[in-house]
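Translate sequence into structure tokens.
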Amino acid sequence: MTTLLSFLRMLNEKLAVAAGLLLLLSVCVTLYDVIARPFGMSLGGTDELSGYAMAVVTSWGVSYALTCLAHVRIDIIRARGGTAVRAWFDAVSILSLAAVAVTVAYRAWPVLAKSIANNSTANTTLETPLWIPQSLWMAGWLWFALSAVMLAACVCLFLVCGRHDDIEEFAGSRGEA
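Result follows.
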């Protein structure tokens, strides 16, 4: 179980690097466009492409935040409890997060399905087929939901087995207990 979660953490780190590279590429294209405009060499559509990049990076980045314990949590009560109390709070926290992640991923599909059905394109000069950025965006939310559900299932098993230290390691709060 801990091997699976360690693998998930490592995979999310690699995905975060890929997302970071996409963001860096977006910054470079925007910088080039800003510098090239006075010389009449603007690429055009940079704002649209950077918007897509931000949406994709965000949807994929939340999984990294999940596995490196970076999501915001108000844990004033949790921090005052013992190991078992913290484990229960962590379990409730990750189960809640998994429920939200599944809901967001589920609700992303109608957005993509409507764009596919209507053959929608962006209302811009690029006329980007919206299914392209929306597919990448939705895939990020699906990965987040899968990551959260896997983590929640492992935390529940850890809780049943009394493995509170493993819960602390994989789903705990970054703050000191």
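Note: The chain has one domain: 2-171.
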